[in-house]
Design goal:
- By secondary structure, the chain is of the alpha/beta class.
- It is built from 17 helices and 13 strands.
- It has helices at residues 27-37, 46-52, 76-88, 102-110, 125-135, 139-145, 171-183, 206-209, 216-223, 230-235, 261-272, 290-296, 308-323, 344-357, 370-378, 382-385, 390-412; strands spanning 16-20, 41-44, 63-69, 92-98, 115-118, 158-164, 194-198, 238-240, 244-247, 277-281, 300-304, 331-338, 361-366.
- It has an eight-stranded mixed β-sheet with strand order 8-9-7-10-6-11-12-13, with helices on both faces. A five-stranded parallel β-sheet has the order 2-1-3-4-5, sandwiched between helices.
- α7 (171-183) crosses α17 and α11 (261-272) packs parallel to α12.
- The chain is globular.
- The termini are far apart.
């Protein structure tokens, strides 16, 4: 008698798994996974996931969808371990979170999770996230690609430092988004090469705002720049969305004098000769090598707010630069959280502040509110999550002006 076993269809390979404390708490996720993958997915607890991901059977997985809520924050290390195990096996990770704090969520995304979707799931959000993951390289592939940037050595990049005249004035947000907007100037295939250097060696957060890992290679680079070359510098950079190259701050807090003037000169030379634009996020303090950056800068952006603290710090900086006969004329003043157009009293205060300091405030950026904070928490530029934000529009306008001026000078030269 002929066996009927050969007539039975083979089960579809499992291409994805949900991992959660109890998947029944995420009933909408079950429905969407069935709609997207049919029967080609499974469900695991965190304990089962640790066992399954260690087996060869998990090699067929495209991604795991880790669903967590506020109760999982008490055991966030177990969630993190699951993500790390998946990443090591080059399995992409989607985090689905309900009522999870931004700190915990950011911690998980920093480990290499590809996507985040809030729960309850918005219509089409899971489908879109899966499609993005299938199109994008994995975090491991991106880390490998970070060292494949080829040196050119034929550029004469525009150096644009950003210096906050006090903590919390928005200088890192401005620097990150300015660099990203510059990287998106020009036509497809003809965009400028842009490098973002985070020189705030103690509290630099450019990596946080772009969801990039802090690599040990940065510390090794800063320890002794005299023994490195262009290739070593480029290999220390991380790449964000294949367009923006970033030297993150070190993983550990370092003294600001770990680098001297010669070190900074060397790093700037590597960056300037290989990129069209070099944006530098400076520490809010003035150090010995601030002078080095100022001399190298084409313009030196200083961020301030409409308050007495900013006014006094601006005055101190101007006096210090003039006292050392440094090029104070390179300073360009940017007012963050500026009053709205209809706030005539606020506009009058801005005018009086500029007159009393004898400066010209060339750019006024409005208060972006919650979307700016959320963009930073999610590790994305404003254009990716709040494209119509007035903050983004002002920074985009400035980036366009800088690029057009640079293009016209290149043609004129």
């Amino acid at each position: 008698m002929t066996s009927t076993a050969a007539l039975q269809p083979e089960p579809s390979p499992i291409v994805a798994c949900t991992v959660s404390r109890d998947v029944q708490n995420f009933d909408l996720l079950i429905e969407d996974m069935e709609a997207e993958l049919g029967e080609s997915w499974g469900d695991l607890s965190f304990e089962d996931a640790a066992v399954f991901l260690a087996q060869d059977d998990s090699n067929s997985l495209e991604f795991v969808a880790i669903a967590i809520d506020e109760e999982d924050e008490d055991n966030i290390s177990q969630v993190a371990e699951t993500i790390q195990t998946a990443i090591r096996k080059k399995i992409k990770v989607l985090v689905i979170a309900e009522d999870v704090s931004p700190i915990a969520l950011h911690q998980l995304l920093k480990l290499g999770a590809e996507e985040f979707v809030p729960y309850p799931l918005p219509d089409g959000a899971l489908h879109d996230a899966i499609e993005r993951m299938r199109r994008a390289p994995s975090a491991a592939e991106l880390a490998t690609a970070a060292g494949t940037l080829k040196a050119t050595g034929d550029r004469d990049g525009v150096v644009l430092p950003v210096h906050g005249l006090g903590g919390g004035v928005g200088s890192t947000t401005f620097a990150v988004n300015l660099a990203w907007e510059l990287a998106n100037m020009g036509e497809e295939g003809d965009a400028p090469r842009v490098c973002l250097l985070d020189f705030d060696l103690q509290f630099g957060s450019a990596s946080t705002y772009l969801d990039l890992p802090r690599r040990e290679a940065v510390f090794e680079l800063l320890q002794d720049t005299s023994v490195i070359d262009t290739d070593a510098f480029l290999q220390a950079l991380m790449t964000f969305n294949e367009k923006l190259h970033v030297l993150t701050a070190p993983a550990e807090m370092l003294p600001l004098d770990i680098v001297g003037q010669e070190d900074v000169e060397r790093l700037l030379e590597f960056a300037r000769t290989n990129f069209d634009y070099v944006v530098i996020d400076m520490p809010s303090v003035v150090v010995q090598w601030t002078e080095t950056v100022l001399h190298a800068a084409h313009v030196y952006f200083t961020m301030l707010e409409l308050d007495m603290r900013s006014a006094q710090n601006t005055l101190r900086l101007i006096r210090a630069l003039k006292g050392e006969e440094l090029p104070v004329e390179k300073l360009r003043y940017i007012l963050n959280r500026a009053p709205k157009f209809t706030d005539l009293t606020g506009k009058s205060r801005v005018k009086r502040m500029a007159e009393s300091l004898d400066i010209k405030i060339e750019v006024q950026i409005p208060d972006g509110g919650k979307p700016v904070t959320e963009a930073g928490d999610h590790g994305l530029p404003l254009s990716e999550v709040a494209g119509k934000s007035p903050v983004r529009r002002e920074i985009q306008k400035l980036a366009k002006s800088v690029h057009e001026l640079n293009q016209s000078e290149a043609v004129g030269g």
